[in-house]
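Note to self: keep these together.
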Amino acid sequence: MRKLPPPHRRRWMRALLLALPLLSLPVLYAALGAARSSPAPPPGRLQPGGRRPPPRLAYLISGAGPGDGPRIRRLLRALYHPWNCYLVGVAGEEDRADLEAFVRGQEAPRRYGNVRVAAAGEWAAVTRRGPTELAATLHAAALLLREFDAWSWFINLSASDYPLMPQDDILHIFSYIPRDLNFIEHTSNIGWKEHQRARPIIVDPALQVPNKTEVVTTKEKRSMPSAFKIFVGWDNLPRTLLMYFTNFLASSEGYFHTVICNSNYYQNTTINNDLRFMAWDNPPRAHPVNLTIEHFDAMANSGVPFAHSFSDDNPVLDMIDDRLLGRASDRFAPGGWCLGGSVDGKDPCTFFGRSFVLRPTKRSAKLEELLLKLLEPDNFRPKQCK
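Structure:
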């Protein structure tokens, strides 16, 4: 990562940014490589990135509460690829022990060493709308940087998320785009969130007690900085904002967006889309609806690689496994790294090949089509940070 230039003068921060309400955090943001203003590719095609290996994706998979172990096992099977790296975070001792035993019992993760279950001292109870969720995400990114080399994008998923295409498709298409792009949905028009998210002062009990509870809202309201702006120096921006968001409701929905959009190095690298399919009530409520079989066609045709949210063992997950991922029950989603045959119901991933060999499906064209649309001149620059 290139070193940021020293600040020659203080600047006024742009309007604080809040994402649309999500149960999990921003899907993708670049963590490595020099951030610069990336030109969009010519219309109609994505340009190859040379002969370098495909990008490596760093996944954080986190549980929301006790009993999420089976959901995380299923999600990990659907997401696994030996070229990527994975950190699993759960707070319960039983779920943690179960997931550690699961990872040890799988030959592919054991051989490639690319799945890590966060230890008890590395992952504590998290309050979903409190700053402990934000702190856990930052710590997870630090662990992934320490444990694994040269990954290009950080992807944060919860137990209620699920992929809509094989990893080979994602890695193949992402090989054609600049690796300094940040996929993060953001807006400066925060509307009702100013009074319901920004002004309330909350206390996250998980900062003081081991048992997770709901956040506590005080009677007092914070006064917003002049024109909703904060006076900061660039070098200390992430730390300053982290302190500001400590008592901020749903802090994870604004912290990363505000840091990126107020950094000279990163503000021109944003694509205003988090690559996640969601459906909302009309009028929208605080959280998206749980996806069902009724949403399958829309998900399959969306071109996005992930969807949120799913209830436990919803039948639509079986449809996604069968029709979109080609994954059999209790097996990893197959890819170019799997050398075995599938005749007579055999698991093709019993035998391994080279981890960086990709075998994308025809569905990868849908992701390419989506990215080309997002990178069109009318969509790319006008929808970046303002």
